[in-house]
Write the structure tokens for this entry.
Amino acid sequence: MNNKVILVVLDGLNYQVARDCMGYLNGLLEQRHSNPNMRATLYPLMCELPSLSRPLYECILTGVRPVESGVVNNDVVRLSNHDSIFSLAKSQGKVTAAAAYHWVSELYNRAPYEPVRDRFTNDENLNIQHGCFYHWDHYPDEALFLDAEHLRRTYQPDLLLIHPMNIDDMGHKFGLDSRQYRNCARGVDIILSNYIEQWLNDGYQIVVTSDHGMNDDLSHGGILPQEREVPLFVIGDKFTHQECHVKQTELCGTICQLLNINHTKPYPQELLAL
Ligand SMILES: [Zn+2]
């Protein structure tokens, strides 16, 4: 059974930039009739509020909106109070892994993050059993994807989160409407093109999305469309690839369904061919 999932969260990637600049992912959308295993669909997603990273990691990974989770800004440093895709998967015998920013380790493994202890994590008792966490916003995306692929090949996780930070970093330095921000998205698209076919062949369903977008003030956090509109690419044969409306709060339940684990999270039935 192909019940494995790779979730790629490209931090700070605006919907329109994903649409305009990521030629490989857009190419997958256009080859619908060749290989059914590689079918891909792009849905627009409206992020929950505030459009900030840590609150939306929690939203994506637990299905709970920031005002309800209490993780309402980036300075709330504590473990999550909710079931997450990691805790649900781990407690039902699945293998979990993440190559991600250290705030993810703080939400689901241990808070506060201690780099010497937590940067490389291998502990069957933690929600994220195999982790490679980083705490530099400029940690190269190329290195982060290599970290993730190392985890994937070494531990064959059922659930792997891949979370690079450079797009967001370029947005904070140069803004949404900048060559640096767009070129960073193009760079991630090229990196993804080196991995996605192999991941599909190894039985993974793939979700590529973002926590929030970016604005021209070199920031995000509010309700501007460019801050809230993010992409949702779904790739694999467990998706219907039909038109439907997906909420950011439904990603957690969607991934639980793909993993075939018990959960009480909301998910959009019409997205999944299960
Ligand atoms: Zn940011």
Remarks:
- The mean pLDDT is 97.
- The chain has one domain: 4-271.
